[in-house]
Amino acid sequence: MTQSPFRSRPMALLFLSPLILLTALFFYWPVAEAIRWSFFLEQPFGGESTFVGFANFRRVLSDPEFWKSLKLTGIFMVTASVPAVLVPLMLAMAADRGLRTSRIARNVLVWPKGVAGASIGVIFGFIFNPFVGILTPLNQLWPGIWSPGTDGVDAFITLIVANLWNGIPFNFVILLAGLQALPDTYAKAAALDGAGPWRQALDIRLPLLAPQLFFVLVLEFTESIINAFGLIDTMTRGGPGGATTLLVYKIYADGFKGYDLSGASTQTVLLMIFVLLIAAAQFLLMERRVKYER
Amino acid sequence: MIETRTSFDRICMGILWLGILFILAPLWIALMTASHSAVDVMRSGLAWYPGPHLVENVIRVFTDTRIPVQMFNSLVVALMTAVGICILSFCTAFALVFLNLRFGWLVFATIFGTILLPVDIRVVPTYQVMSNIMEPFAALGLPVSQISLVNTHIGLALPAIAHGTGTFMLRQFFRTVPMDLARAARMDGAGALRFMWDVLLPLSRPALAALFVLMFLGGWTNYLWPLVASSTADMQTAVVGLARLATDGDSRAPDFPLMMAAASTVSLIPLTLIAVLQRFLVRGMALTEK
């Protein structure tokens, strides 16, 4: 890229400082505070705080509840992200055919962007209700087969379905944009060589879509555990028996319901480390396999 | 084209219709259930067909719940978020791309870092900071008094504004603007400000519109931060109010039609926005990726 002809340090300072100030105040300062508090024992209602070294970390890391919710977070990340990427992928590949249906689909499939996770959680909570919901006939045939209120797996499934519903717009749009940016010379060459539509889809379009797939998957991993909060809070409240208490929900409960500021801060630090590690691991593992040249 | 592909296209069409059905079914059920009475729903389960009580249930949402004032809160917070992000990230991205900063990459990295850890992950310390935003300055030894932004509109919007996505999107867009435009402007005697206002701003109108729609929807649909940062029902956003309505009534039998009517009402404004401004929204999301 060629250089811009403008250069003005005072103007740059003027333009940059508002956002830098805001990020410092509402991003870097809270992050720093979380780290600081994880080394202090705070009294719930003000008062003195005492430096305790790694005692908070020892307490959290020896708590089986923490490990359970960390494990659930990991499980949710994978089981919720995979369908939330695969389903939009199939939809995008189908919509890319330029059929008449795809015009409607491209409009309707972005609607969930306007419905909050908590709102669709309220709706899905009702739809999956074992007594008045859509699966009630199942329960009449086999009593107790569908019971998200007592069965952790059922509750987990409702979260995954709701998360998929919410995740479709963004992933669909990105993947479809990626597909439409592919030059159609590939398709023409493949067709000349006798490749049918299936072969073209699997051996040409899918590999060429790798960068977008990678991008969408990286974002979906973080997105899923964030979106999960609104769903959990409206559908399962962490239950049954803690089966859906992901770390985001546990931190909220510990910090704002249990007034355990030190514990919540320590777990926040651990969650931040977890999220950053996942992102780093995805980059190291997957970027090597993705070819960016087209 | 060369080969026949009817069977493949038929499968594609099937997939698309399944997708459309999956998206529309919950919204349809919510709307239909909202048109029945609570007794009917308790007796015969969720509704697939319209009933006679829709207007009555919507009126109950407006008279019996705090949803109306909460929708006003959502509107204020979403507008603040969208406008704030558009202005701030336009200025920031402009400085980063067009003002030749020596440490521009460092500034960019600082702002980009915020994308990695959204506010939902660090909600506990962010709440503590918001309840006394002067603390960092006090820590520097400045004589300032305590100011809490908890339970204010601006406090609800600020963490979303202090976020890098908008800057990132506009920076990507600015880099596709030919630098020759800037040089031509310079040759015609325009300064940086004039170039920004008379050349770059008109060029960026579609990108800004896309960013605005995206951030407005984000501001409307946020949940965890508005939940903790609003302490009274009259300051909660509509989504928080809806969730409270659905989960706090543990004592009585759940009033599903009222809940569904509230869910439909709360989602009406963003859904209308999407249906009308669909073009901008799609462009906005696609811009995130480039």
* Shape estimate of chain B: globular
How many helical elements of chain B? 15
CATH topology of chain B: MetI-like fold
Radius of gyration of chain A: 24 Å
Q: Which of globular, elongated, flat, extended, rod-shaped describes the shape of chain A?
A: globular
CATH architectural label of chain A: Orthogonal Bundle
Annotation, overall tally of beta strands of chain A: 2
Number of strands of chain B: 0
Question: How much helix is in the residues of chain A?
Answer: over 70%
Give the spatial strand order of the biggest sheet of chain A: 1-2
Under CATH at level 1, the class of chain A stands as: Mainly Alpha
Number of separate structural domains of chain B: 1
Ranges of chain B with pLDDT <50 over ≥5 residues? Answer: none
How much β-strand is present in the residues of chain A? under 5%
Uncertain spans of chain A: none
So how many helices of chain A? 12
Beta-strand fraction estimate of chain B:
under 5%
Give a structural overview.
The complex is a heterodimer of chains A (294) and B (290). Chain A is mainly α and 294 residues long. Chain A has helices spanning 9-37, 55-61, 64-95, 100-108, 117-127, 136-141, 152-180, 185-192, 197-208, 210-235, 247-257, 261-286; strands at residues 40-41, 50-51. Chain A has one domain: MetI-like (MetI-like fold, Orthogonal Bundle), CATH 1.10.3720.10. In chain A, strands 1-2 form a two-stranded antiparallel ribbon. Chain B is mainly alpha-helical and 290 residues long. Chain B has a single domain (55-289), classed as MetI-like (MetI-like fold). Classes of the chains: A mainly alpha (294), B mainly alpha (290). At the A-B interface, helix 1, helix 3, helix 4, helix 5 and helix 7 of A face helix 1, helix 4, helix 5, helix 6 and helix 8 of B.
